[in-house]
Amino acid sequence: MTALGLVLVLAGVAAVAFEAHRPTHGALGTPGVAALAAGAALAVEGAGGGIAAVVAAAVMLGVAAVIVVALSLTKGVAVRRRRIRSGPEAMIGRCGVVSRWGERGGTVLVDGALWRAQLEHGLDQAAEQLHEGDEVVVEYVRGLTLIVRRAERWELAGW
User: Are residues 18 and 50 in the same domain?
Assistant: First the structure.
């Protein structure tokens, strides 16, 4: 029984550790907690401990594992709610200034970097011609080209 208990404890520790590093929303953490508690009970009972020692070991390891899994779950959910800060998705909604503009597009300065830019599809390009110094907002990113539109007054208040 002691060997089976130790194997269950190790499997439980592995499952809880995996849950902490790769959140599975409790899919591995919950069975890991159960394996830890059962393994501790079996190991203590196999070593000749009384019923009080068995229950105490199972409860202590189970509570500790539940705390680790709960902390992992709350931190995992909090990370998923944060706004993206890097990559193309982070450029969406940023304001910039037109550096140069021609018929088919131009260059805009966004966050200290010059980017190729085009007007958003669906806008009448003849009526919506941009000029140097105009403020724009990034609508989305296609490859290394920003698709922009003219910024409205309310968008520039915090910029």
Answer: yes
